[in-house]
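**Sequence with structure:**
===
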Amino acid sequence: MSDDYVLETRALTKEFKGFVAVNNVDLRVRRGSIHALIGPNGAGKTTCFNLLTKFLTPTSGQILFDGVDITPEPPAAIARRGVIRSFQISAVFPHLSTLENVRVALQRKLGTSFHFWRAERSLQGLDARALELLRSVDLEAYAATAAAELSYGRKRALEIATTLAMEPKLMLLDEPTQGMGHEDVDRIRQLIKKVAANRTVLMVEHNMSVVSSIADTITVLQRGATLAEGPYEQVSKNPAVVEAYMGSADAELQGAH
């Protein structure tokens, strides 16, 4: 495995009772890049993410991270290596403030998450770093706001802050702009570009305008297999990709130019 690539899969395959959800996928994610995984519904994108984080066990194939074969490792070990994931559904503690949400993530990194007997003041040493992370996602003004009161787009920004608190070497973002209006989509797009400045991002994303504007490399999946790979300009003109995105999705693909 080249030092240029932080993550590589070799013939990664997942079968469910005879149905092949991911089929011999060779994925190479370049260090320091934004890599997007796209494809029609049912293409195997989220299954691929679940394999990379070991929420699912591959039927066959290999996953290498930083040159090490991590295929046999459990999810917690992979997270400790710095492969940190956000989910399609917003996952924050609604009744905690945004600052407290980030502080919980910082505690996990310190290994003190379950020290319930500690006085709250013992956590205040984490506040400066938590505020710094909130500032990085433009949420510093909402530090005292309960997460439940944030707009959907700001909740996703908070998720990115908690993901950053884990000091990821590789951030996996699953549909980060799903269900958002234009204003929130643009905020998250800019945010992903900002946080990717000194780290690697692998994202599943359906919004082609987001993908076309920030992804360095795009891998297109169809029926669990790699259909095409390359920069957006090249991939969007590939006849097989255009055919896979028939109808409105096809129009969306072309319209993102």
About this structure: The first strand starts at residue 5 and ends at 16. Residues 22 and 48 are 7 Å apart (CA to CA). Residues 152-165 form the longest helix (14 residues).
